[in-house]
Amino acid sequence: MKFLFDSDTWQEIYGSIRKNKVRTAITIIGVLWGIFLLVVLLGSARGLENSFNKLFGNFATNSVFVWTQSTDTPFKGFQEGRRFRLNMNDIEVLKSEYTKEIKLLAPRNQTNNLIVKDFKSGNFQVSGDYPVLDQIQKKQLLYGRFLNENDIMNTAKVAVISEDMYKQLFEIDEMPIGQYIKINSIGYQVIGVYKPSNTIDFDGDCAYIPFTTFKKVYNTANNVDWMMITANEGTDIEQMEADVLQTLKGLHKVHPDDERAFGSVNLGKEIGKVTGFLTGMQFLTWFVGIATLIAGVFAIGNILLITVKERTQEIGIRRALGATPKSVRQQIILESVFLTTIAGMIGIIFGASILALIDSFLGSGEDAVLINPTVDIPIIIIAFATLIVLGTLIGLIPAHMATVVRPIEALREE
């Protein structure tokens, strides 16, 4: 390791670089570009992944939504085009038959109604729900609480409203909790105000009331407009969706091959497609970055080979004056490692700067495209260490070429 601290060694490296400024600059840019691309692409991929995660927020992503439409196949005496409704019996059957697969199941009923508070009013969606909805689609409460089991059991006339509804119906800074609003001319006590989600949201501005209260007020009997189902961890979400639909077809006398009778959205399946895309993009990022990095390192090797060729006489003189093959080899390898290290450091600094700019322009606000585009420090360290190793290995080739030439032949070279 003594040669590392030898001033003569570094003077020779400096002299070599100074005599070939353009060639050295091109060499450094090659390696710099490789690690720069790797850092920027990995950071951008992370930013896109963060944006995707923010989109779904606290929503249970392994969920399936099911509703009824109209049949497209005659079956058991029923004509094509028959319309029917889900009901609470369906909910109980699914809960009992799929205890291992289903984690949460929320039946829902919805309508639009005029909501009035004193002399202010607005037309909003009203949804009859169970407390389990808050576990599937978590609400960020500004005031009060969400629906609970006592509200369901007591058929309570209570409501949880959105922040926009609160602003439209109440005075500025007026405390909404405990106040009354009228929905369909019936008074409901406000028990909570929630902030609309910036992520995926199927309801928008909505007043949530107990499912049992909705059933009584709107006379829906046992009917259910649609249901949200969340699967347990490890459940095949696509198979569960298929099984649930077949069970519902049997309960409602629908042909097993009828594709129109039920509508469904498999959120887990759709998220899987996006996750697959992100995984593929990360793989492509690594491939492109590493390939560019290796190309840059090979460029260093080629440049050093040319340098060795040009310095054949100089190497011959050094050998004639007593320089050992080991010392010549060490200098060539050190020059390779030095150029690789400098290029790597500059590339990482430039890459981090670009990611900071991306975060400033694209990573803030509700419509952020790339949120917190960063690269983990261990990944940077591994990439940098790999770069140094490659620089060392590639330096072995010109180093070997420099030592195989006999001194007398080197001195004759013109």
Features:
414 residues; alpha+beta; two-stranded antiparallel sheet; 12 strands; 18% strand; elongated
Task: Give the SSE layout.
Layout: H1 7-19, H2 21-56, E1 63-68, E2 86-87, H3 88-97, E3 102-117, E4 120-129, H4 133-136, E5 140-144, H5 149-153, E6 158-162, H6 163-169, E7 180-183, E8 186-195, E9 206-210, H7 211-217, E10 223-224, E11 226-231, H8 237-251, E12 262-266, H9 267-310, H10 312-320, H11 325-362, H12 377-404, H13 407-412
Parallel strand pairs: 4-9, 6-8
Antiparallel strand pairs: 1-11, 1-12, 2-10, 3-4, 3-7, 3-11, 5-8, 7-8
Helix pairs in contact: 2-9, 2-11, 9-11, 9-12, 11-12
Task: Provide an overview of this structure.
This protein has 414 residues and is α+β, with helices and mostly antiparallel strands. It is built from 13 helices and twelve strands. Strands 1, 3, 4, 5, 6, 7, 8, 9, 11 and 12 form a ten-stranded mixed sheet that branches. The protein has a two-stranded antiparallel sheet with strand order 2-10. A hairpin with a 2-residue loop joins strand 3 and strand 4. Helix 2 runs antiparallel to helix 9 (267-310) and helix 9 (267-310) runs parallel beside helix 12 (377-404). The longest helix is centred in the C-terminal third of the chain and has 44 residues, at 267-310. The radius of gyration is 35 Å and the shape is elongated. The two termini are 34 Å apart. The model has no long low-confidence stretch (mean pLDDT 82).
Question: Which blocks of ≥5 consecutive residues have pLDDT under 50?
Answer: none
Helix content: 40-55%
Approximately what portion of the residues adopt beta-strand conformation? Answer: 15-25%
Category from helices, strands and their pairing = alpha+beta
Main beta sheet strand tally, sense and closure: 10 strands, mixed
Number of separate strands? 12
**N-to-C terminal Cα separation, in Å?**
34 Å
The whole-number mean of residue pLDDT values reads 82
What is the element string, with H for helices and E for strands?
Answer: HHEEHEEHEHEHEEEHEEHEHHHHH
